[in-house]
Amino acid sequence: MDLGISGRWAIVCAASKGLGLACARALAKEGVNLVINARGEEALQVAATELRNLGVEVRTVIGDISDASVREQVLAACPQVDILVNNAGGPPPGDFRDWQREDWLKALDANMLTPIELIKACVDGMAERGFGRVVNITSGAVKAPIDVLGLSNGARSGLTGFIAGLARQSRLAGHNVTINNLLPGPFETERLNKTLSVAADANGTSVEAVSEKRRKHVPAQRFGQPDEFGAYCAFICSAQAGFLTGQNLLLDGGSYPGTF
């Protein structure tokens, strides 16, 4: 299927590795030019080289996307934002009894307020041009909270509620601008490994044992691969996905047990 987005421009945040890189890779394979951002220069440049080899233009901006000046650089580097993929590393796992106000504010800034600021900067221009796709990478924990990820549960749920209203504004949806959330379950990334490590320490067992137990609770009997996630993201950004908006799309191998 031709996704109909060749030649468009996309901003992909936290794109040096993991799910962000997978999304950037899938878009590049569809001919989408990229502005990619991450905090680590070396990993970002390695990712940029890989993506350029797919035949598209790739521009890089190093820095923390939650910093307003970095957001300005990212937006300035993109000639025209047709696609925005919001992504940020989740806050650390732990016990809420140990978190201070500053921990909560940092989580909200990275995983709720920063995506909102980028959306605000992009969607009106998208509407004027008659095409726009926003994908927010959140977490399966929005639907099935994980006890040690309280900071993430709270911040990402706040973003989810905001998007539920924004995506349904007729001045956006009525002008071919869609906003959706992608909710990953357990994918083989550094983030998953850190979560498994914390769980192992808390239970006095090995990471391998915790990983195997977690894998057995996934109906697919495995963890997801980042490129699977990227392909799904690319379709949501496609010309064919214009009737899909305001949705929370769960990719978790069947782990979520609910009907809705």
Automatic annotation (TrEMBL):
<protein>
    <submittedName>
        <fullName>3-oxoacyl-ACP reductase</fullName>
    </submittedName>
</protein>
<dbReference type="InterPro" id="IPR050259">
    <property type="entry name" value="SDR"/>
</dbReference>
<dbReference type="Pfam" id="PF13561">
    <property type="entry name" value="adh_short_C2"/>
</dbReference>
<dbReference type="InterPro" id="IPR002347">
    <property type="entry name" value="SDR_fam"/>
</dbReference>
<dbReference type="InterPro" id="IPR036291">
    <property type="entry name" value="NAD(P)-bd_dom_sf"/>
</dbReference>
<comment type="similarity">
    <text>Belongs to the short-chain dehydrogenases/reductases (SDR) family.</text>
</comment>
